[in-house]
Amino acid sequence: MNRKQRWLEILKASTKLGLTSFGGPAAHIGYFRDEYVHRRKWLDDKAYADLVALCQFLPGPASSQVGISIGMMRGGIMGGFLSWLGFTMPSVIALMIFAMLITSGSVDIAWLQGLKIVAVAVVAHALLGMGKSLTPDVQRLMIALGAAIAILLVPTAWAQIIVIVLTGIIGFLLYGKDQAPEAVKLVLTFGKKTGLAAWGIFAALLIGLPLVRPFIESSAFAIFDIFYRVGAIVFGGGHVVLPMLEREVVPEWMTADAFIAGYGAAQAVPGPLFTLSAYLGQLMSGAGGVLIAVVAMFLPSFLLVIGTLPFWSVIRTKPGIQAALKGINAGVVGILLAALYDPVFTSAIRGPVDFAIAIAAFGMLVYLKLAPWKVVLITALLGALAYAL
Fold first, then answer.
1. CA–CA distance, 339 with 171 (Å, rounded to integer)
2. Disulfide: which of 90, 159, 360, 382 matches 18 by Cβ 3.0-4.6 Å?
3. What is the spatial distance between Cα 367 and Cα 345, in angstroms, rounded to a whole number?
4. What is the pLDDT of residues 157-201, one digit of tens each?
5. Which is one Pfam family of this protein (predicted)?
6. In the predicted model, is pLDDT for residue 281 greater than 90?
C-alpha cells in the first residue's frame, strides 16, 4: 500500500468515527480501540494503551490526540492531520450550523433552556466518572476538593493555571516513589529534531500571543489567542474546557445563556467536545471565526503530540512525571466540580422544575445508560415544555 492509499484509508476510518462516535472521550477511546486495534489491526493493545497514557498526560482533548497519534504512526504527520480532519469535521459543521440558526433567531429560546439544563446532567456525569478513576484515594480526593474551593473563591483563568501547577507539585511530593510502568517503543516517520521544533513553536505561541495581543487591534488575532491558549493549557479533556472558555468569551463576546446552550448542543453531536470552538467562533466572527477558533483550539494538540511522541518511551518511565500527573488529574476533577456550579448550574437552573429535569437527565445518562444525544433531545423537549408553561 503506497502513501496516498494509506492517507485515504486513514481519512475514511476517521470520518466513520467522526460520524458515529457519540458519548464523550471515554467512549471515543473504546470506539478507537474497536476500529484501529481489533478491526484494522494498525497497532496492538499494548501500544494502544501507551498512546492513551501519553494523551492523558498531555493537555488538550485526549481522544482527538489518540486519533492524531495513530494517524501519525500510520501515515506520518499528514496521516495525523487527516485522522483529525475526519474525526472532527462532522461535529464542526453541525455546531457551526446550530450557531447560525441561533444568530438568525431560528432557534426558539425555550429549546435553548433545555440545552442548558442537559449541560448540568452531562457535566455531573463526567464528574462522577472522572472522580472514580482520578481520585481513588483520600489524598487525591482532598486535592480535588481543595482545587474546587480555590477556583470558586478565585474565579479567573490564571487561577486555574496556578491550581494545575500546584496540584502537579503536590502529586510529585505524594507519589514520587511509585513505580512507573514500562513503555512500548513507538514506530514513527519523524524524529527528535522534529519533536523539538514542535515544542519550540508550541512555547513561542503560548508565550508570545498574549504578549503581542495588546498591540494588535484585531478580533481575528484575539480569537486565535483565546482558543490557542485554552487548547494549550487545559488538562482533563473537553468538559474541563468549559470554565476556561466561559471566562474568556462571556460577557465580552456573547451572553452566558448562549454559551451554555452551545455546550448543551455539543453533547448531541459525535466527535470531540473541543468542537464547541466552532459554535463559539461562529458567534464571535462568523465563518472566519469558525476557521480561526477551530484551528487555534486544536493546533496545540498537534504540536504537543509531534513534540512528545519521539520522547515518550523515555518520559513514560519517569516516576516523577507519573506522580505529578496523578496530582494534576485530581486537580482537574476539582476544576470540573467548580464548573458544575458556576457557570453550568447557575446559568441553567432557574427553579425546582429545571432541577427536576436535570435530575431526570442525569438518571437517563447514569442509570438507564441512554446515548447522550438521546438524552439531549429528550431534555431539550422537556425544557421547552417547562419554559412554555
1. 22
2. 90
3. 21
4. 678 778 888 998 999 999 988 876 665 667 788 889 999 999 999
5. Chromate_transp
6. yes
Q: Which amino acid is at 277?
A: S
Q: Would you give the DSSP letter of residue 345?
A: I
Which residue do the cell numbers 514513527 mark?
188
Q: Distance between CA atoms of 227 and 231, rounded to whole angstroms?
A: 6
Cell numbers of 381, please?
Answer: 423537549
Mean local confidence (pLDDT), 242-271: 84
What is the distance between the terminal CA atoms of the chain, rounded to a whole angstrom?
Answer: 61
Q: How confident is the model at residue 243 (pLDDT cuts 50, 70, 90)?
A: confident
Query: CB of 253 within 8 A of CB of 277?
Result: no
What cell does 249 get?
A: 468569551
State the Cα–Cα distance between residues 282 and 288, nearest whole angstrom. Answer: 8
Alpha carbon distance 379, 264 (integer Å): 10
d(CA 28, CA 55): 13
Is the Cβ–Cβ distance between 262 and 95 less than 8 Å? yes
- 3-state class (DSSP) for residue 2: coil
CB neighbour list of residue 222: distance below 8 Å, 6 or more residues apart: 213
Distance of alpha carbon 32 from alpha carbon 288, whole angstroms: 31
Determine whether 142 is exposed, middle or buried from the number of CB atoms within 10 Å of its CB (0-12, 13-18, 19+).
Answer: middle
- pLDDT one-digit tens code per residue, 109-133: 667 677 778 778 877 887 887 788 7
How high is the pLDDT of residue 182? Answer: 65
Confidence band (pLDDT; 50, 70, 90) for 237?
low
pLDDT at residue number 107: 65
Residue 265 corresponds to which cell in the numbers above? 448542543
Given a cut of 90, whether residue 24 has pLDDT beyond it is: no
Q: List C-alpha distances in Å: 386 to 42, 155, 345.
A: 49, 31, 17
Please report the DSSP string for 166-225 in residue order: HHHHHHHHHHTTSPPPPPPPPP-SS-HHHHHHHHHHHHHHHHHHHHHGGG---HHHHHHH
> C-alpha cell of 83?
485522522
